[in-house]
Design brief:
transport, nucleotide-binding, alpha+beta, binds adenosine-5'-triphosphate, 5-stranded antiparallel sheet, 29% helix
Length: 329
């Protein structure tokens, strides 16, 4: 179990990490999700021992790691850009931690073959790392990190540098590999999908503080307040009668005084929908159309429409609410 208690890091007057407490049980993957500049890389570096704590403690299996240097903490780090050794081939990179541990040559070679198999790169051992694609480099970096048999794998936006389709594919693969190898991992990222695909638990970090944590699905669907909801992609917030109207149409309990938060996907332009609206603006996105609507008796909302919908400004449409994209705050 990795445990952080009130971990604090200051850079002069700047409080980059503010009393962060987290617990990561063995075998689980925890994602710390937050926008750029919220302090998540600093937190990861502090856990690794690369940044001094101004307060609090980092414990691994009951041992306080204060004073334990980075290379003795039993962690492996994996960054956005892999940071492979360019003078070594693929097998040399993956085998590097094994050589450091003094694993004998034939055993190390066998483990390298296994690890390359695990990350989906069999027969890549002899390749020069400079000839690999970004996705292949990240797989090699992962194999090298796993070769160290870390007590905890620390991942800093491991897939951010990759293009979208590769990122999605590799995220799924990475999840499978972490669970097959029972790796305990802490991931920091600004990417919702990366956190959602990889992690069992999620902690939302804003301005140096963890403002919500819990099972990934719970955090995703039940944000604790408007700040968290906005960061997680809820774009419309309704209170009072408008909130009641939409909640009622979606079959949700009466929100009373609680704000009702809506993702775009909570409202869909659909000829069978019970609500009525006027189109204000529409813009195509990859697999739908994003529409700003003036919902009758409610006001401005964001919604989604199918790509073939007629959505000129002023056009009247019907809207189908979907409670899956709604949360009561
Ligand atoms: N060595 C440093 N000295 C001074 N300030 C720093 C240092 N490292 C980070 N900071 C500041 O601390 C804050 C948090 O930075 P950090 O890199 O942890 O954010 P982040 O959430 O990882 O952002 P990103 O996703 O953009 O990398 C920022 O305001 C940053 O400018």
């Amino acid at each position: 179990m990795l445990r952080l208690d009130d971990v604090t890091v200051r850079f002069g007057d700047l409080l980059a990490v503010d009393e962060v407490s987290l617990a990561l049980p063995e075998g689980q993957v925890l994602a710390v999700l937050g926008p750029s500049g919220c302090g998540k890389s600093t937190l990861l570096r502090a856990i690794a021992g690369l940044e001094d704590l101004s307060g609090g403690s980092v414990n691994l299996n009951g041992q306080d790691l204060a004073g334990v240097p980075t290379h003795r903490r039993g962690f492996a780090l994996m960054f956005q850009d892999g940071q492979l050794f360019r003078h070594l081939d693929v097998a040399g990179n993956v085998g590097y931690p094994l050589r450091l541990r003094g694993v004998d040559r034939s055993e190390a070679n066998a483990q390298v073959v296994d690890l390359l198999e695990t990350v989906g790169l069999p027969d890549y051992g002899d390749r020069d790392v400079t000839t690999l694609s970004g996705g292949e480099q990240q797989r090699v970096a992962l194999a090298r990190a796993l070769a160290a048999q870390p007590r905890v794998l620390l991942l800093d936006e491991p897939l951010s540098a990759l293009d979208r389709s590769l990122r999605e594919r590799l995220a799924g693969d990475l999840r499978g590999i972490l669970s097959a190898t029972h790796t305990t991992a802490l991931l920091v990222t600004h990417d919702h999908d990366e956190a959602f695909t990889l992690a069992d638990r999620m902690a939302v970090m804003l301005e140096g503080q963890i403002v919500q944590q819990g099972p990934t699905q719970t955090v995703w669907t039940e944000p604790v307040d408007r700040r968290v909801a906005e960061f997680l992609g809820f774009s419309t917030f309704l209170v009072g009668t408008p909130a009641e109207q939409v909640a009622d149409a979606a079959g949700l309990p009466n929100p009373s005084r609680a704000p009702l938060a809506l993702r775009r996907s909570a409202l869909r332009v659909d000829p069978d929908g019970p609500l009525h609206a006027t189109v204000r603006r529409a813009a195509a996105i990859s697999d739908a159309v994003r529409v700003d609507l003036e919902l009758d008796d409610v006001g401005p909302v964001e919604a989604l429409a199918p790509q073939d919908a007629v959505l000129t400004p002023g056009h009247r449409v019907r809207v189908l609410p979907d409670r899956a994209g709604m949360a009561l705050l």
